[in-house]
Design a protein that fits this description.
- With 271 residues, the protein is α/β, with parallel strands linked by helices.
- Helix content is 35%, strand content 18%.
Length: 271
């Protein structure tokens, strides 16, 4: 029910299944955050951001991909409230979540290209990062992203009571954090809507037509709102919401498209 590996399990995975794998803690915005990494520290950075509920474990299998780790530094992060980043204590603000993940980008920038991969609720988080820190983001991969406020399901009848201090305690910690951030998501997306035009880096959207959690119309929303950049949509007729696990090759393909054989620092152009 925690949606995470124990620290011992994570360390064993990194030691036995990855190239130069390690995991780290850091402090941002008065919170303790956590991420795992593997790959070539001299190559472009690919940062994975999970959905809700979830943890960095959602993307650890990519850290074991020898092709990707030979071409990039891969990092998967626990969002605040999940994994080993204050499990159960949510941060509903997309802006604050972006600020909390920013130190990873700053630490590893060093003139390298950076691409952010966000699944589900991780989609608007990485979009917010591209909006707020355009100098640190060179590309986005949005995987089944919850981004259109008009397509958010009306679940207030049960989420609102469970978000109160009186009832939130009955939920496991990961679900408590998930319920709180999803309860606040629609107004967060409404506030984000006028800002999408600020994104100027290339964007790839991966969406399944059989997604019962995030409607396929979210891909249309991305195309209509991302007016200052190029948008590539991979619409898969047989894919559902769980693309990181049952269709990982789609994400792998999107990442490789961002890694052509060009000199570091000259991979992207927004001109």
């Amino acid at each position: 029910m925690t949606f995470r590996m124990s620290r011992k399990e994570l360390q064993h995975f990194l030691d036995t299944q990855t190239r130069n794998g390690s995991h780290h803690f850091y402090t941002a915005e008065s919170r303790t955050l956590h991420y795992a990494q593997a790959g070539d520290t001299t190559k472009p950075l690919m940062l994975f951001v999970h959905g809700s509920p979830g943890s960095l474990s959602a993307f650890t299998h990519f850290l074991a991909d020898s092709t990707l780790t030979s071409k990039a530094l891969l990092i998967t992060a626990d969002r605040p409230g999940f994994g080993h980043a204050g499990l159960g204590v949510a941060e509903p603000s997309l802006e604050q979540q972006a600020k909390m993940l920013k130190p990873i980008l700053e630490k590893y920038r060093n003139n390298r290209p950076i691409v952010l991969i966000g699944h589900s609720l991780g989609g608007p988080v990485v979009a917010r990062m591209a909006i707020d820190f355009p100098e640190l983001v060179d590309g986005l991969v949005l995987v089944a992203p919850s981004i259109d406020p008009e397509l958010e399901p009306n679940e207030m009848w049960f989420r609102a009571p469970l978000a109160t201090p009186f009832l939130s305690w009955v939920l496991p910690r990961s679900f408590r954090a998930s319920n709180e951030e999803i309860y606040h998501l629609k107004p967060q997306l409404e506030a984000l809507r006028p800002l999408w035009k600020k994104i100027s880096c290339p964007v790839t959207v991966i969406q399944g037509e059989k997604d019962s959690f995030v409607p396929a119309g979210n891909a249309d929303f991305a195309q209509s709102e991302l007016v200052s950049t190029t948008v590539s949509v991979m619409m898969e007729s047989n894919a559902n919401h769980f693309i990181p696990w049952n269709r990982p090759e789609l994400i792998r393909q999107a990442i490789l498209e961002f890694l052509p054989d060009k000199p570091a620092g000259k991979i992207y152009s927004n001109e």
